[in-house]
Task: inverse folding
């Protein structure tokens, strides 16, 4: 994977959560996911990318993290994952993808993004369409919330 | 200061974004807010009633923000309505296309209520 592709997604995730959810996510050490498709979180937004290479982005939240994020975004307390929370995950994923694409465009890499889809449920599977290593960037929000940005690009074109 | 009694139409396929925009507008003192989930629904609302300002997402199914903008500008009754496009990206060619189609301004996600206020004030003071 082209390492130039990684930081834009990290920067975008921080910026989106800071601006829209008034939180300061702390980034952990990135790691390669391995062969398991099982999600790191409880609800995931996933979006395909096409352009200079093909790939996909997944943003996977623990229940605690997404409830805190959405509560901050809307200014009211959310106690469980519901349709509104699911929609918010889609929009957050959309914004992270868009901002990362903007940064990548400034570096000379052009990508188009699809409209995200959202999957939820404990141990759901995230299937990145293209073959390639899946890099996971872990984040923490506050004391209990975690979310994970997964980036996967085609191995033979990146 | 922009007239806060204007009727604003917020268009986005994600209800989250419509809700965020609605909350920001209320924070800024605007209370007459309509919503639509895509450009086609927005156009029907526009043709049926009094809307003074449109804030629309770019990427939407059925009719996207650019298509909605072009439809507004092609309709003699709707043509004067100011349009602010909201986009998750700011690719130069998209901005150029929107300007050619007659957009009044655009804002890039993520954005704050302050940024939205600046964009709205810039449109209505022009």
Result:
């Amino acid at each position: 994977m082209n390492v130039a592709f990684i930081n834009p997604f990290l920067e975008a995730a921080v910026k989106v959560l800071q601006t829209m959810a008034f939180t300061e996510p702390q980034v952990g050490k990135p790691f390669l996911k391995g062969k398991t498709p099982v999600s790191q979180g409880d609800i995931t937004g996933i979006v395909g990318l096409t352009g200079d290479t093909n790939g996909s982005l997944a943003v996977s939240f623990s229940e605690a993290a997404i409830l805190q994020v959405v509560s901050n975004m809307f200014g009211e307390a959310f106690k469980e994952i519901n349709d509104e929370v699911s929609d918010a995950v889609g929009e957050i994923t959309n914004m992270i993808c868009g901002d990362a694409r903007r940064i990548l465009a400034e570096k000379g890499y052009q990508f188009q993004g699809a409209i995200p889809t959202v999957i939820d449920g404990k141990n759901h599977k995230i299937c990145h369409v293209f073959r390639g290593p899946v890099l996971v960037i872990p984040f923490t929000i506050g004391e209990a919330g975690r979310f994970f940005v997964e980036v996967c690009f085609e191995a033979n074109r990146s | 200061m922009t007239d806060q009694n204007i009727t604003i139409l917020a268009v986005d396929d994600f209800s989250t974004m419509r809700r965020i925009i609605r909350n920001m507008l209320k924070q800024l003192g605007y209370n007459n807010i309509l919503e639509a989930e895509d450009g086609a629904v927005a156009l029907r609302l526009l043709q049926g009633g009094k809307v003074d300002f449109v804030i629309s997402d770019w990427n939407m199914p059925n009719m996207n923000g650019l298509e909605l903008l072009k439809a507004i500008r092609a309709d003699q009754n709707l043509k004067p309505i100011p349009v602010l496009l909201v986009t998750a990206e700011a690719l130069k060619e998209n901005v150029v296309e929107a300007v050619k189609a007659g957009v009044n301004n655009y804002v890039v996600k993520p954005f704050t209520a302050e940024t939205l206020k600046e964009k709205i004030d810039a449109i209505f003071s022009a």
The longest strand of chain A covers residues 43-51. The CA atoms of residues 54 and 143 of chain A lie 35 Å apart. The helical segments of chain A are 6-21, 63-74, 83-106.
